[in-house]
From TrEMBL:
PANTHER family: PENTATRICOPEPTIDE REPEAT-CONTAINING PROTEIN. Signal peptide: none annotated. It comes from Eleusine coracana subsp. coracana. This is DYW domain-containing protein. The lineage of its organism: Eukaryota, Viridiplantae, Streptophyta, Embryophyta, Tracheophyta. Keywords: Repeat, Transit peptide. InterPro entries: DYW_dom, E_motif, PPR_At4g14850-like_plant, PPR_rpt, TPR-like_helical_dom_sf.
DNA sequence: TTAGGGTTAG
């Protein structure tokens, strides 16, 4: 809402410049009444009550420049740049405060170029002006410009020095921060804390502690920095020790501990500290709520949300993301619609919920809505929508986004850049992917992996290898995904030629990711190699095998059909096999059709993890794939009777050019008693979108007697495929036949979309499909 | 009533 009335009034005033007299709309000597009202404006703005502030402003008979400044600062803090701009122009006699505030508004609204222009034309620059430039450029990752303004500043105060220090720290330039720090001695507590926080943030706890011990005087922030540092690293013992030792605590200290316990899954401890807090603010409540959200205890979270006395945007966002992560998209949307105010996080969270849930239409719809609301599109929103474009192979839309991204002045960092790469590859546009990759300002391991996988999947093996070679010249360390990808590539294209060279390059790094190596061997069927690595890991590298390594080995042996050896390994282990290991064995028994061992493994899993819904579904599907429909039904009934619920969710994984793997969880609605309820829901949705409901058509190749069971177990996936493939009305998907894709993908089928000729593989997602490279866990690749 | 350090949500 534009407060057009006061703006017009102000503009009028400005055009008929009259000398300021007592009682004029802008008096140079504000009275007590004006000061009091200015404070009220600030209070409203701080609480996000922009309209209230505007009403007050409009109703003021006399205003001072500070009145305008208060409004200006409020607009900036509430993200209303256009209003701030208009108001600034209407200020009768802007002072240094006005200029600095508006400069700050421009800078925080990502209009850095505008901020620089304003800075140049400012009649008077004081140290605050320079300091705004230093910190705002740092906030956008432009450290060298921060340094430029820092060097330019004629007089540097404590804020300038600390601002520059923070500029380095926030951008990970910890060495430069240290050099600056060592270059002089007049630092205050804020400086010490800033550098210390930098060490904490980048995981260098020893250095942080060293500073903590050395600093001349510690304030409550110093203690908080250390407490939260340990808490975030999961070292709750040390965090608690410092918390107990702290001479002063404030709400930050308490909240850091609550959130530490929460993030490490120690719910009871978190609650105990939370209940003992002498005073709580919104952040404390949010931290406790986040604890429940993290454990998917949405009812408990909602309870807190309902009773908390002070809700802020983050509280709403916490609930929103909680519902989204629990797959409760309708609840998430309800929260989103009810929010008194939305910020960038709210939009991003809702977008992420839709895009990660595969709801492409909804994602794009919401994105449009976002534009209509004039909401600033941040990096996260860009990434979500880009990944949706990738899902539906919407190249044009993706390229438009790329353009907008550049226009918005964002540097292409990893977050958005990776989404961009994925989009180009999924659309088969190798050249633009390469360009985007080269233009990326920074690259992380995911960027490299995306490039390797992208090239490999389109059959550009040589290019993929070149990327891998280039990656080795950088400081980015290959991770498990790189290894798996490389092994896949190597196996598909080069038949084991490069494997030893590749591995030796991996071993150059200090910390070999052994799980990655073993998983990679398991995946590429390199059984003997895997076994020898497993032993050399201990003998040559002195690494003691942990349960996860054994799990890999059981998986590896099992897949190779060496079930007895896998069993023996489990017996000889220094610890009891856990459910993951039995699960791996269960998967292997399936591939090799050893139903006796499968049953045994399944029983063990149920014993150890009666709550594991994936197991029931897996076993049910195993029976179904053998045609033992009654047993399959029994498993589902048992799951239902025991009140076990599946975590819903599904995702797309692009595998090869124009080939998609689609994984869908069996129950996308939580209370599924029978699959038909779900089908009905999809039917309605699809019809609404103009698709044919053509389960019969889809199943035309399937024999009559199988049809009923097929419907029960597989048609939900067909239906979803319809929605996602965007088959136009009247164009059925053709089933190639009840084709098993591979031993492990028991419910996988191939479909060809009649219209696009896309080959689609559908399969279940369960815990055994834990490899993200699109390979089946049985070791087959697509 | 503008600029520098510590807590929550994406």
């Amino acid at each position: 809402m534009l407060p057009s009335r006061h703006l017009r009034a102000a503009a009028r005033q400005r055009s008929h410049r009259r000398p300021a007299i007592a009682g004029d709309a802008c008096s140079s000597k504000p009275d007590v009444e004006v000061i009091w009202r200015n404070k009220a404006i600030t209070a409203h703005m701080r609480a996000g009550r922009v309209p209230d502030a505007e009403r007050l402003f409009d109703a003021m008979p006399r205003r001072s420049t500070s009145t305008y400044n208060a409004m200006l600062a409020g607009y900036a803090a509430n993200g209303r740049l256009p209003l701030a701009r208009a108001l600034f122009r209407s200020i009768p006699s802007p002072d240094a405060f006005s200029y600095n505030t508006f400069l700050h508004s421009l800078a925080v609204s990502s209009s850095l170029a505008d901020a620089r222009a304003l800075f140049e034309e400012m009649p008077v620059k004081d140290s605050v002006s320079y300091n705004v430039m230093i910190s705002s450029h740092a906030n956008h990752g432009l450290v060298s410009l921060s340094r430029h303004y820092f060097d330019l500043a004629p007089q540097k105060d404590a804020v300038s020095w600390n601002g520059m220090l923070a500029a380095y720290v926030r951008n990970g330039r910890i060495r430069e921060a240290r050099n600056l720090f060592d270059s002089r001695t007049e630092w205050d507590a804020i400086s010490w804390n800033a550098l210390m926080a930098g060490y904490v943030q980048w995981g260098q706890m020893a250095e942080a502690l060293e500073m903590f011990n050395r600093m001349p005087q510690r304030d409550v922030v110093s203690w908080n920095t250390m407490v939260s540092g340990y808490a975030r690293r999961g070292d709750m013992v040390e965090a608690r020790r410092l918390f107990d030792a702290a001479p002063v605590r404030d709400v930050f200290t308490w909240t850091a501990v609550v959130s530490g316990y929460a993030q490490n899954g120690m719910l009871e401890e978190a609650r105990r500290v939370f209940d003992a807090m002498p005073e709580k603010n919104a952040v404390s409540w949010n931290a406790m709520m986040a604890a429940y959200v993290q454990q998917r205890m949405m009812e408990e979270a909602k309870e807190l949300f309902d009773v908390m006395p002070c809700r802020d945007v983050a509280s709403w966002n916490t609930m929103l993301t909680g519902y989204a992560q629990a797959g409760m998209l309708e609840e998430a949307r309800a929260i989103f619609d009810m929010m008194p105010q939305k910020d960038a996080v709210s939009w991003a969270a809702m977008l992420a919920a839709y895009s990660q849930g595969g709801f492409s239409e909804e994602t794009l719809q919401l994105f449009k809505e976002m534009g209509r609301c004039g909401e600033w599109v941040n990096r996260s929103a860009f990434a979500c929508v880009l990944s949706t474009c990738a899902d539906i192979a919407a190249l044009e839309c993706g390229m438009q986004l790329h353009g907008r991204l550049i226009k918005a002045g964002y540097g292409v960092g990893c977050f958005v850049g990776n989404a961009l790469l994925a989009m180009y590859f999924k659309c088969g546009n190798m050249e633009d992917a390469r360009k985007a990759f080269e233009e990326m300002e920074e690259k992380d391991v995911i960027s490299w992996n995306t490039m390797i996988a992208g090239y490999a999947r389109h059959g550009f093996g040589t290019e993929a290898l070149e990327v891998f070679d280039k990656m080795r010249t950088t400081s980015t360390k290959p991770d498990a995904i790189t290894l798996v990808r490389f092994f896949v590539l190597e196996r598909c294209l080069f038949k084991s030629i490069f494997v030893s060279g590749m591995l030796s390059s991996v071993f150059k790094y200090n910390n070999v990711d052994w799980v990655g190596v073993l998983a990679a061997c398991s995946h590429s069927g390199l059984v003997e190699k895997g076994i020898s690595y497993f032993y050399s890991m201990h003998c040559n590298f002195g690494v003691t095998a942990k349960p996860e390594h054994y799990t890999c080995m059981i998986d590896l042996l099992g897949r190779a059909g060496r079930l007895d050896e896998a069993l023996n390994l489990m017996k000889d282990m220094p610890f009891e096999p856990d459910s993951t290991m039995w699960g791996a064995l269960l998967g292997a028994s399936r591939i090799h059709r050893n139903s006796e061992l499968g049953r045994r493994a399944a029983e063990k899993v149920f014993e150890l993890e009666p709550e594991n819904a994936g197991m029931y579904v897996l076993l049910s599907n195993i029976y179904a794939s053998y045609g033992k429909w009654r047993d399959a039904d029994n498993m589902r009934t048992m799951m239902h009777e025991r009140g076990v619920k599946k975590v819903p969710g599904f995702s797309w994984i692009e595998v090869q050019n124009k080939i998609h793997t689609f994984s869908v969880s069996d129950s996308m609605h939580p209370e599924k008693e029978d699959i038909y309820a779900f089908l009905e829901y999809l039917d309605i949705r699809m019809k609404k979108a103009g698709y044919v409901s053509a389960t019969d058509m889809v199943l035309h190749d399937v024999e009559e007697e199988e049809k009923e069971h097929m419907l029960k177990y597989h048609s939900e996936k067909l239906a979803v495929a319809y929605g996602i493939l965007k088959i136009p009305p009247g164009r059925p998907i053709r089933v190639i036949k009840n084709l098993r894709v591979c031993g492990d993908c028991h419910t996988a089928f191939k479909y060809i979309s009649a219209i696009e000729g896309r080959l689609v593989i559908l399969r279940d997602s369960n815990r055994f499909h834990h490899f993200r490279d699109g390979s089946c866990s049985c070791g087959d690749y697509w």
